[in-house]
Amino acid sequence: MTNQDLGDFAKETLLERYEVQQQLGKKAGRRTLLTRDLQTQELVVVKLLIFDDEFQWHDLKLFEREAETLKAISHPAIPSYLDYFELNTADYKGFALVQSYIPAESLETQLKAGRSFSEKEVKQIATAILDILKYLHGRQPPVIHRDIKPSNILLTNRSGNNVGDVYLVDFGSVQTIVRSNSTMTVVGSYGYMPPEQFSGKATPASDLYALGATLIYLITGQHPADLPQQDLVIKFEEAANISSDFSSWLRKMTQPMTSRRLASAEQALQILELPRVKTLTPVKASNSVLEKPFGSKVILHKNADFIEITIPPVGGFSKIMIILSWYFGIVLSLSFLMIMPIFRAMSPLLIPLSLLILFLVVFICFFGTKKLYINRKQIYSCYELFGIERHYPLPSLKKYIVRLEKTNTFYKDKPQPCLIIWAGMRKYKIQSGENNIFSVSTLELDWLAQELSDWLGLPITKE
């Protein structure tokens, strides 16, 4: 090994303990050294912050935060904190952070060496990093990496059916969130930073964007900043040979607006690991937009913060048929009950109660509405009559939305199209058919499916 390999610290032994073996990295005011711990004889990494002409106080803040974070966390895929000390040599003053050494190459190094990755391998890398992010974001307060990119992901021990062991390193930009409106230093890497990070703000979803951009680099072989963009959305599809499901997932990971991006590592994992379902073939070309059908009375309001769909009751002959079916159902039920002596004595109550139910059905058919509402935090569906709401099913957090599915329900053996939003195990439905007061036409269902798909960033699927 030459003195050039050792860099500025050739033949140095730091703190009379860490013998420099190799310089791993160098940039203004920073050095990363591979050293041997003379006490344990193990290889360790020493990161140095040097007080030189380019030193700025926020560098020390980030350096101390990295040390504090590594000291507080413990994960097999993250370097372990070992030591922290003041650097005081004849040539350099500063601080040193000692952490465990991971003998692995970065994704960036492997890409530049000509390695390519299959969709299966990229998904394995995504799953591994998301597991790490679940741990980091799940801490109190959440730990946000803020600089996920190919050079900060290490890969080793590749086997035939497995991409290998995946590690996340370099916590020099890490941030712990105590208040959602706190101001942060602008850090990150161009091409991998989400828009909100340019203004010094970061959330757990910021790490998801950076991971998505990293995965796009893996599948296209092109830096995200070199790919075309439209309204800050990375247009990677033409350069990637991947499934439509995975492409849709990556689009959701890299949405420039946080309200449209996947909200958590847990949600991203849930969607990534969903069983493969068939993507619904669009009615029109992929670059066309379905418009609201002429004459539709369905009301849709949406912006970046929410989408609201209001469905009026069916009209005309369908409304009459629903009222008549309820009327005859009540008459038949009363006739059956009146035969039984135990209910005959209750007839003074049963008849008014039945009429009340019938009048309620009539009022719903003329004045009721069904509403589906989704905002940044939750989703709910309710039935409304004269300002009184009944929620069914109960509201769910938006982060639990994992699938937008178009399927068929059956009424009298006839298939009736139905759009279902899955939030965990809860199903929020928009139905088309003759047995539902708040039914929409198939054209309206296709239009609403596309609007929800675009707003949620989820593909329309069917079993």
From TrEMBL:
Domain Protein kinase as annotated: residue spans: 18-277
Taxonomy of the source species: Bacteria, Bacillati, Cyanobacteriota, Cyanophyceae, Nostocales
SUPFAM superfamilies associated with the record: Protein kinase-like (PK-like)
Transmembrane segments: 320-343, 349-369
Key words, A-Z: ATP-binding, Kinase, Membrane, Nucleotide-binding, Serine/threonine-protein kinase, Transferase, Transmembrane, Transmembrane helix
PROSITE patterns, per the entry: PROTEIN_KINASE_DOM (PS50011), PROTEIN_KINASE_ST (PS00108)
Pfam families cross-referenced by the UniProt entry: Pkinase
Keyword Chloroplast in annotation: no
CDD domains for this protein: STKc_PknB_like
Protein name per Swiss-Prot or TrEMBL: Serine/threonine protein kinase
SMART domains cross-referenced by the UniProt entry: S_TKc
InterPro entries given in the database record: Kinase-like_dom_sf, Prot_kinase_dom, Ser/Thr_kinase_AS
Keyword ATP-binding belongs to the record: yes
An example molecular function term from Gene Ontology annotations: protein serine/threonine kinase activity
Source organism of the structure: Anabaena cylindrica (strain ATCC 27899 / PCC 7122)
